[in-house]
Amino acid sequence: MHRLTVQYFSPADPAAFDERYERVHVPLVHALPGLKSFTLTRPQALGAGAPYLVAELWFADGDALAAALGSPEMAAAAEDAAKYEVASTTMFSGEVHETLG
Predict the structure, then answer these.
(1) Residue ranges of the EthD domain (predicted)?
(2) CA gap 84, 101 in Å, rounded
(3) Which domains does the chain have, with CATH numbers?
(4) Closest alpha carbon to 54 in 41, 45, 73
């Protein structure tokens, strides 16, 4: 499995961010080709600097992730993500290795 993780920090208006993210962005992500799973987490800080929202997009392998990243659907999701008023956004991807089982 490969995972694309997006962290959103300190939205200017959390209620407006949440409403637009759920109404507009989530459906755009659901349309990504090859998407196996999409999870959202609102972390509770165990120290300083926790993001406001963490989105994790799961794909079968690196080829599926690459195809999604190059798709028109991802372009639409990226265009929408650029409209959010947040202090910062961090995005990274990688192969996931299961260590239990």
Answers:
(1) 12-84
(2) 39
(3) 2-94 (3.30.70.100)
(4) 41
Name the stretches of the chain with pLDDT < 70: none
Residue whose token pair is 């196996």:
36
What is the Cα–Cα distance from 16 to 27, expressed in whole angstroms?
17
Tokens of 69: 């990243």
The one-letter amino acid at 30:
H
- Dist. CA 29–CA 21, nearest whole Å: 10
Question: Which of 32, 25, 15, 19 lies closest to 69 in space, CA to CA?
Answer: 32
DSSP label of 23: I
Query: Would you state the structure tokens that stand for residue 91, as one six-digit string?
Result: 């995005």
Asked if 65 and 93 count as a contact pair (C-beta separation under 8 A), the reply is yes
Model pLDDT, residue 77: 97
Coil, strand or helix at 76 = helix
CA atoms within 13 A on the CB side of 21: 22
